[in-house]
């Protein structure tokens, strides 16, 4: 959110000043080293900790993107830059440059999985594993994929085309989870409309997973196609 160009500006000003003074190269190098050493000496553990405390303070509200707390933090950093005598690099001469973002919110009430007359609600009984949320409705027969063997060994390309696959993890679920992505990829490549995985997570773990899945996400708002 904050864009600064002041290092480049400082370099240009230094070069102009040195050229005007026509100092010998050795004198210029000495002045540069002295200036750097003087600047470094102003950085102390106490000052560093103070700035961290300001940025991490509760009044900054976690600095979520976007949020009022992020605005406060950016404004404070900009005020420090001005106090140092730096020049802003934004078009209006400030230190703040704004850019578009997309906030993606899951429609939990309108999302879920219907099996016959039963409906599994999103966030309550169904959670996404990974990947970007998609809008739409897909209907097809349900296929259970289970057993202690390797599901990839019995799947051929197109064998699940137009069907919803449910992967039932066996007693060796811990071992399965280490290669779960490969198994899910095989089910997808076999043509499955969707792939679901059963879970034996306890209530506390499931609640935490649900909270993460339903949390709005922020993505860049430029350079995207209609389906990205």
Q: Can you put this structure into words, describing what you see?
A:
The chain contains 7 helices and 7 strands. The protein starts with 5 loop residues before the first helix and ends in an 8-residue tail after the last strand. The chain is elongated and about 75 Å long. The chain has 228 residues and is α/β, with parallel strands linked by helices. The chain is 39% helix and 12% strand. The protein has a 3-stranded parallel sheet, covered by helices on one side. It has a two-stranded antiparallel sheet with strand order 1-7. A two-stranded antiparallel sheet has the order 2-3.
Write the layout of secondary structure elements.
Blueprint: H1 6-21, H2 25-41, H3 45-56, H4 68-84, E1 101-104, E2 112-115, E3 118-121, E4 142-145, E5 164-167, H5 173-178, H6 180-189, E6 194-197, H7 203-214, E7 217-220
Parallel strand pairs: 4-5, 5-6
Antiparallel strand pairs: 1-7, 2-3
Shape: elongated
The biggest sheet, with number of strands, parallel, antiparallel or mixed sense and barrel status, is: 3 strands, parallel
Uncertain runs are 1-23
Strand content: 5-15%
Mean pLDDT: 74
Q: List the quaternary state of the chains.
A: single chain
> Helix share of residues?
25-40%
Number of helices: 7
Q: Could you give the distance between the termini? A: 23 Å
For the biggest β-sheet, the strand order reads: 4-5-6
Number of strands: 7
Q: H/E series, N to C?
A: HHHHEEEEEHHEHE
Radius of gyration: 28 Å
Q: Structural class, from helix and strand content? A: alpha/beta
């Amino acid at each position: 959110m904050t864009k600064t160009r002041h290092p480049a500006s400082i370099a240009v000003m230094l070069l102009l000043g040195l050229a005007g003074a026509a100092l010998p190269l050795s004198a210029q190098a000495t002045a540069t080293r002295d200036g750097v050493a003087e600047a470094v000496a102003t950085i102390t553990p106490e000052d560093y900790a103070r700035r961290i405390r300001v940025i991490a303070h509760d009044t900054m509200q976690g600095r979520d993107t976007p949020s009022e707390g992020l605005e406060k933090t950016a404004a404070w950093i900009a005020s420090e830059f001005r106090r140092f005598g730096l020049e802003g690099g934004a078009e209006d001469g400030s230190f703040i440059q704004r850019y578009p973002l997309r906030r993606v919110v899951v429609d939990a009430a309108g999302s879920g999985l219907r099996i016959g007359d039963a409906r599994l609600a999103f966030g309550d009984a169904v959670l996404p594993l990974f990947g970007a949320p998609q809008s739409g409705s897909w209907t097809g027969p349900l296929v259970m994929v289970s057993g202690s063997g390797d599901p990839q060994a019995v799947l051929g390309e197109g064998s699940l085309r137009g069907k919803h696959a449910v992967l039932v993890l066996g007693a060796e679920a811990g071992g399965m989870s280490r290669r779960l992505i490969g198994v899910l990829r095989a089910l997808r490549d076999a043509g499955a409309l969707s792939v679901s995985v059963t879970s034996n997570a306890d209530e506390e773990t499931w609640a935490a997973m649900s909270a993460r899945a339903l949390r709005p996400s922020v993505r860049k708002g430029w350079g995207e196609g209609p389906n990205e």
